[in-house]
Write a structure and sequence with these properties.
Layout lengths: L15 E6 L5 E7 L25 E4 L8 E7 L9 E7 L4 E8 L2 E8 L14 H5 L3 H9 L4 H16 L8 H4 L1 E7 L3 H8 L21 E8 L3 E8 L4 H4 L6 E7 L31 E4 L4 E2 L5 E9 L7 E8 L12 E7 L15 E11 L10 E2 L2 E9 L17 E7 L2 E2 L11 E6 L14 E3 L4 E5 L5 E4 L27 H4 L2 H22 L7 H5 L2 H5 L2 H16 L23 H21 L8 H37 L3 H17 L10 H13 L9 H33 L20 H23 L5 H26 L4 H21 L7 H9 L3 H16 L15 H6 L8 H4 L10 H11 L3 H8 L3 H10 L7 H8 L2 H9 L17 H21 L3 H24 L13 H14 L3 H16 L6 H18 L1 H13 L6 H8 L3 H12 L4 H6 L4 H11 L2 H17 L1
Antiparallel strand pairs: 1-2, 2-3, 4-5, 5-6, 6-7, 8-9, 9-10, 10-11, 12-14, 13-14, 14-15, 15-16, 17-19, 18-21, 19-20, 20-22, 23-24, 24-25
Length: 1203
């Protein structure tokens, strides 16, 4: 800093001044630097004539300090209205005193005056008239020139002024409360002037000042910040010489405020650290008793806010924190605040705790600088505090002694960029955003520590520059993208599997990335401490940042997995570069296998670091599975490389033993292809499934089959072997380390259904497994026919392992996404491919137990039913004397009946078939019904009666047989209704003809009669039972009549005739017969057929009965006509005895007699009798003769009377 002076008449060279002060003695020196005039030097004496700084000093002054008082701050200030050639500085002391120092050029002299600490009014002006202000022009300047005292008088005047100004101010001053730690001059702005002197004052009318040197402008404002964060605003007069003595501008303390006042119990009130915008709202800031500055404050470029970094401490050193405060120097429009206040606060959670403590801490703040503000359009400066970016540097303390031993520092240098968003006036009504922080850790092998307070603003990049203790000059710049004001990203249920299942939005979340960088830096420190012997205690607890403990579990889990992913994806090292491209790069690795071994060890160290630091217990189950996935992938990648090397070594040795040059050439070609595909597999092992996919491309192009070349067969076997070996090693690692290291179950259970699936269930891995099974399906027979050694054994092992991995992987996905249509479809396709392969290549002499177990485990209904059916039919029809016993392992009955939640087959009844949507029991019944195995349907249905009832009712093919199930379950009423409604053949015949046989109709009707009796006994509505019983009786009557009518022509395949057909048949039989006994039998059958109608159809009964009686009469019509004629010509008619004698042998009399003797009493039979008026009238009407009517009626009455 310093002032500037002009000299010479024709040159205007700038003089630069350098000031230096001794804190303990209070001596302040100035050096004048002028490269053009090296001989131009000022005096080197103080005001009392003694040289204080040697011959190199151009001028000096001693500030009179009190006992144990030291200088704590020195800063230059500007004076707009002071006399030319005067430069000003302000110095602060440990007792809260403020000195103003100014330099005069001719002669070159330093002067010091103590500013009184008494409180003054806000305006700071005396009552001096405007005319006195106007007189402060050239006249006063001339007066000062001629009356300037000598150096000795100046010395005496300054000393006297200091004693008078100090007075009693220093008495009783507490160093802790009043020690000024920093001074910040405030620039002169319109807003500042309004606060200092009220409204702008206009000059008197008709008078203009000769020079713009109003005394009201000859002052400056400065803020002092004490160690205990007491903020004072000072007004300092910048008038030199006698001007200062007669100054109309008073100086002193304008305002005083405690940023953190104390509570009644002596602790600090830190409510102002809880940002009004919502950040740190959940922090507990109670119990803190000390707060102090860590670095000199920095003024924002617009001069409206001040940045200060503070440390708060309490009795527990682990609670030490660092905050960056943004202090508003001016109120926003609409606010009534006058004194400076905390506008916003950002918790620097990268470093806190013991390392930052004032008692034995190893960390210090190396600097603070305010960078350029974020640009905003259409805003009013009075209504908005613009957003700005600040840079804070932390590094190891210089007195920690790490350089003496040549080791690494206890902590790296960290540069934190803090973005404070713009703050609007309350009237703006916008939602405010939270501060954002980005941390950059510098490599300790490049930058050990920084020169304290060496940071400055870099106008080129808008960032900062810093100076390392090694002399290296560096810079940092951060560009914060626009922050979205939408809701925060939800991290629940998101897995961080090693197969790349992290959401892109999660990987870009600012909070997650910040915590990830903190974890990586702390882990590097942890490794350094382990390499150096640990240093005692818990090294993980010593380096873990507090931000890890205060962030949410979801954020921590995502950050942990991302940090682990960086470790897994670190390159293998080497490459000729001495600087690793990643903080986890492994240098000078001997081989890819060694690189993977070291990565696995590094991963274990990382998990142990999280455990010992106390952070692992807050990592969610998904995060733990993600960590375990990374280790499993490393293990699988290492197994892949080892298996490939082993395969080629064994194959080449076998080919060399038999001197098969062609085979050796094939192996050499295959090795070349494989090595090219696996190049870089040890670097980014997350892409392990892609390595297998690249190997599969070579045999996918040919399509497999019988045309497979020897090279393709080798690649299929090699890929299968490496997949089995890799997944096997990974699963073994999972079994051994899940509980011990990761504290999660080693198997997938229902409790994990809401968490992410492991990497073996990732889409990429499942595609690899499916493609490999497809290749084996196409080329399996070709491989077996090639005669390769142990091909059959190996192929079986490959099929078993790959099928198990593919099916279990799809099951994991299905359990977590039961509504994902694509996942369900892929699962079904894998089942359709895997189970036949298991039956083909993984069976022992036809024993499909492994395929059945896989089908049961994965609810593959088609495989279960087909396998069981194939095995059951091999012994079921061999007869009772077969020596082959039934294999009950393939019995479907226990699978159908065991539906309880504790059953082995419970999961089958909770699943549905993908293609049909049927449950297990329904699927089994339909499978047998589709093949026409209806007896098996009812036999198996005994084990699931409710499902059978539902199925036979809904399946058109089985609906006519539903009565069987109704009878089995005791639903006799439904069975009766079902039996009576049958019209088409069920047991025999062709249903397409829709004609039921007589025997089948008779059997079904008889069953209906029996079922109806049981139903009637249980039914409360007896009327319905009686009606059904009448219907059944009528049907049985018709069937009996048909049997009588067709007795002479019956062959056993007669169809059941309807009533009309039977009536016609009876009439025909009567008409064709000449035997009275036959006519009598047929007549009775006809009358029975006529009566087989509901009671409400009496008219139809009479009509049908009349046709039968008419046919019977027609059989002896000649006899009846003769008798009728004789009766007509005889006087009084023939006698009753003679009539009986003449007609006794007729069919009519025989039928009438049998009808009366055999027919049961009842309305129905009365409706078909000859003496029933409708019947008789119809018959006599058809005969058309009254004589016949008389004779027939008389004969019928005689028969009726004789019975």
């Amino acid at each position: 800093g310093g002032g500037a002076a002009r000299y010479g008449a024709d040159r205007a060279a700038m003089l630069r001044h350098v000031y230096a002060a001794s804190p303990a003695t209070g001596v302040l020196c100035v050096w004048v630097l002028d490269s053009n005039n090296p001989h131009l030097r000022g005096g080197s004496e103080t005001n009392d004539g003694r040289c204080l700084a040697g011959p190199e000093c151009d001028a000096s002054v001693r500030l009179r300090l009190g006992p144990r008082e030291i200088l704590t701050a020195l800063t230059p200030v500007s004076n707009v209205g002071s006399t030319g050639g005067t430069a000003w500085l302000l110095a602060a002391t440990s007792t809260g005193m403020l000195w103003k120092v100014y330099k005069t050029s001719r002669p070159l002299t330093l002067h010091a005056k103590l500013v009184k600490s008494s409180q003054i009014a806000e305006g700071g002006l005396s009552s001096t008239s405007t005319e006195e202000e106007e007189g402060a022009g050239i006249v006063r300047g001339l007066y000062n020139y001629f009356t300037t005292p000598s150096k000795k008088s100046v010395r005496l005047a300054d000393a006297r002024h200091a004693e008078e100004a100090r007075g009693d101010d220093a008495a009783g001053v507490s160093d802790e409360e009043e020690a000024i730690a920093a001074l910040v001059p405030l620039p002169r702005t319109a807003s500042n002037e309004e606060r200092m002197s009220g409204a702008t004052r206009s000059p008197p009318p008709r008078k203009q000042p000769r020079m713009s040197t109003a005394l009201s402008d000859a002052s400056t404002r400065v803020l002092s910040l004490s160690r205990s964060l007491v903020l004072k605003e000072w007004r300092v007069s910048l008038l030199a010489g006698s001007e200062g003595d007669d100054a109309v501008v008073r100086e002193g303390c304008v305002s005083k405020s405690d940023l953190f006042p104390r509570n009644v119990d002596g602790t600090l009130n830190l409510e102002r650290l809880l940002s009004k915008f919502g950040n740190d709202a959940e922090d507990n800031l109670a119990g803190y008793c000390d707060a102090n500055l860590l670095a000199s404050p920095s003024l924002s470029l617009d001069g409206r806010s001040l940045l200060a970094i503070v440390r708060i401490e309490k009795d527990d050193a682990e609670g030490t924190r660092a905050y960056l405060l943004r202090i508003a120097l001016l109120p926003l429009a609409g606010e009534e605040r006058r004194s400076p206040y905390i506008l916003d606060a950002a918790w620097l959670d990268r470093y806190s705790g013991q390392s930052l403590s004032s008692a034995g801490g190893t960390l210090e703040c190396a600097g603070l600088v305010a960078a350029e503000e974020a640009e905003e359009e259409n805003v009013h400066p009075a209504r908005v505090f613009g957003g700005l970016v600040a840079y804070v540097a932390f590094g190891p303390r210089g007195d920690t002694g790490y350089n003496s031993g040549g080791g690494l520092p206890p902590c790296p240098v960290t540069i934190s960029a803090i973005h404070f968003p713009s703050t609007r006036a309350p009237a703006e009504g916008r939602q405010q955003q939270q501060p954002r922080i980005k941390d950059l850790d510098l490599f300790s092998n490049i930058v050990l520590s920084l020169v304290k307070n060496s940071m400055s603003y870099d106008s080129l990049t808008g960032g900062c520059v810093f100076l390392a203790m090694s002399g290296l000059l560096g810079g940092a710049s951060v560009r914060f993208p626009p922050s979205n004001a939408g809701p925060p990203i939800r991290l629940e249920g998101v897995t961080a599997s090693g197969a790349g299942s992290l959401e892109e939005s999660l990987a870009r979340d600012e909070m997650v990335l910040t915590i990830k960088s903190h974890l990586q830096s702390a882990f590097r420190q942890y490794l350094n401490r382990l390499r150096e012997g640990g240093g005692g205690g818990n090294p993980a607890r010593a380096v873990i940042p507090p931000s890890v403990g205060t962030c949410s579990s979801q954020v921590l889990s995502a950050a942990v997995v991302l940090a682990s992913k960086d470790l897994v994806c670190a390159p293998g090292g080497g490459g000729g570069s001495s600087i690793p491209t990643s903080p986890y790069s492994l240098k000078a690795a001997a081989s890819p296998v060694t690189v993977l071994r070291d990565k696995l060890q590094m991963h274990g160290n990382f998990v142990n670091f999280l455990i010992h630091a106390g952070a692992y217990r807050r990592v969610s189950t998904s995060g733990r599975i993600g960590l375990r996935d990374h280790a499993e992938i490393i293990t699988a990648a290492r197994a892949l490389l080892v298996e490939c090397q082993s395969y080629f070594s064994n194959a080449e040795a076998a080919a060399a033993a038999v001197r098969d040059d062609a085979r050796q050439g094939e192996l050499a070609q295959a090795r070349k292809l494989v090595m090219a595909d696996l190049e870089g597999a040890s670097d980014n092992v997350i892409n392990l499934p892609r390595s297998w996919a690249r190997l599969q491309q070579h045999f996918h192009e040919s399509g497999g089959g019988e045309g497979c070349s020897p090279l393709e067969k080798d690649l299929i076997l090699l890929t299968s072997s490496s997949i089995c070996r890799g997944i096997g090693q990974a699963l073994r690692y999972r079994q051994n380390e899940s509980g011990r290291l990761y504290d999660v179950p080693s198997h997938s259970s229902a409790s994990l259904n809401s968490h992410g699936a492991p990497w073996t269930s990732s889409p990429e891995m499942l595609e690899v497994l499916f493609a490999q099974l497809r290749a084996i399906q196409c080329a399996g027979e070709s491989i077996l026919s090639a005669g390769l050694e142990d091909a059959k054994v190996n192929l079986r092992r490959y099929v078993e392992d790959i099928c198990a991995s593919a099916l279990s992987g799809h099951r994991d996905v299905f359990l977590r996404k039961p509504d994902d249509e694509e996942a369900i479809k892929s699962y079904e396709e894998t089942k359709l491919l895997s189970i036949p392969l298991l039956r083909k290549y993984a069976n022992d002499d036809g024993d499909d137990l492994l395929a059945l177990q896989s089908s049961l485990a994965h609810s593959f209904f088609e495989g279960i039913v087909q396998i069981c059916y194939d095995h059951i039919k091999s012994w079921k029809f061999r007869g009772p004397f077969s020596d082959k016993e039934a294999d009950m392992r393939y019995d479907l009955r226990p699978m159908l009946s065991n539906t309880s939640s504790t059953s082995t087959y419970a999961h089958l009844h909770q699943s549905r078939d993908y293609r049909t949507g049927l449950p297990f029991c329904g699927y089994v019944l339909r499978w047998y019904a589709d093949r026409g195995l209806f007896p098996d349907v009812f036999e198996l249905g005994k084990n699931c009666p409710h499902d059978l009832t539902r199925y036979v009712r809904n399946d058109d093919r089985m609906s006519d047989l539903a009565w069987i199930q109704h009878l089995q379950v005791g639903a006799h009423e439904q069975a009766t209704v079902g039996l009576l409604s049958l019209t088409s053949p069920v047991l025999f015949g062709d249903k397409k003809d829709d004609v039921m046989g007589l025997w089948e109709k008779d059997q079904l009707t008889s069953l209906a009669k029996l079922s109806n009796k049981l139903a009637s006994a249980k039914s409360a509505n007896r009327t319905v039972g009686i009606q059904r019983n009448q219907l059944i009786a009528n049907t049985l009557t018709l069937l009996s009549a048909q049997r009588i009518l067709q007795e002479d022509t019956e062959v056993g395949d007669e169809v059941a005739l309807k009533a009309d057909d039977l009536l016609r048949l009876a009439t025909e039989k009567i008409t064709a017969s000449r035997d009275v006994d036959e006519i009598k039998r047929f007549g009775i059958c006809g009358l029975a057929i006529a009566s087989a109608k509901p009671p409400n159809q009496s008219k139809a009964m009479s009509l049908d009965a009349s046709s039968i009686w008419n046919a019977v009469i027609q059989a002896d019509i000649h006899t009846w006509k003769s008798v009728a004629h004789e009766n007509c010509i005889a006087v009084g008619g023939i006698s009753e005895e003679e009539l009986i004698q003449r007609v006794e042998g007729t069919a009519f009399v025989g039928v009438m007699y049998d009808f009366v003797m055999t027919s049961p009493s009842g309305e129905k039979m009365q409706n078909v009798g000859f003496l029933h008026d409708p019947v008789r009238n119809q018959v006599l009407h058809s005969l058309g003769s009254d004589e016949l009517a008389n004779v027939l009626s008389a004969s019928a009455e005689i028969v009726l009377a004789a019975v």
